[in-house]
Amino acid sequence: MKENLKKILHVEDDKDIQQYIATVLSDSAEITPVSTIKAAKAALSNNTYKLVIVDLILPDGSGTGLVLDLAEQYPSLPVIVFSSHEITDTMRNVSRVFVKGRFRNQELIDTVHKLC
Fold first, then answer.
1. DSSP string across 38-107
2. CATH class of segment(s) 6-115
3. Cα(112)–Cα(81) distance, integer angstroms
4. Residue ranges of the domains in the chain?
5. Contacts by 25-34, CB closer than 8 A, 24 or more apart
6. What tens digit of pLDDT does each residue of 16-31 get?
7. Following CA atoms 70, 102, 107, 19 in sequence, which dihedral angle do they give, to the nearest 10 degrees?
8. Prediction pTM value
9. What does the pLDDT read at residue 1?
10. Cβ pair 12, 35 in contact under 8 A
11. Residue of 40, 32, 44, 42 whose CA lies nearest to 1
């Protein structure tokens, strides 16, 4: 592992999407993938991350609730919403929204570099 890699928590239940994001960001980030809100909260309590990428539909609840919890507990932690659902009402701590299948890899890479 390179020491200059940014630690990013990726909350996504689709293993293919987890792998895809890890591959796209492999040169600049160390991705910790988790599939549930419960696992995300455990990871956040045990590690320090520079950024969180969150899907909105998760097996144990709404990613929106997690994003709101992040705003309260980690107000300076940037959040990217990465979902197949478009969002019109963005939450105050969401730095960027990406819709699955409607973005360029370089957009995601550039956004991560900007936020971390």
1. HHHHHHHHH---SEEEE-SEETTEEHHHHHHHHHHH-TTS-EEEEESS--SS--TTEEEEEETTSS-HHH
2. alpha beta
3. 12
4. 6-115
5. 25/108, 25/109, 25/112, 28/109, 28/112, 28/113, 28/116, 29/5, 29/112, 29/116, 30/1, 30/5, 30/6, 32/7, 32/8, 34/9, 34/10
6. 999 999 999 999 899 9
7. 70
8. 0.90
9. 46
10. yes
11. 32
Residue where the block lists tokens 């293993």: 15
The amino acid sitting at 97 is V
Residue type, 32: T
Q: Is 36 in contact with 13 (CB distance < 8 Å)?
A: yes
Choose among 101, 97, 104, 6: nearest CA to 56: 97
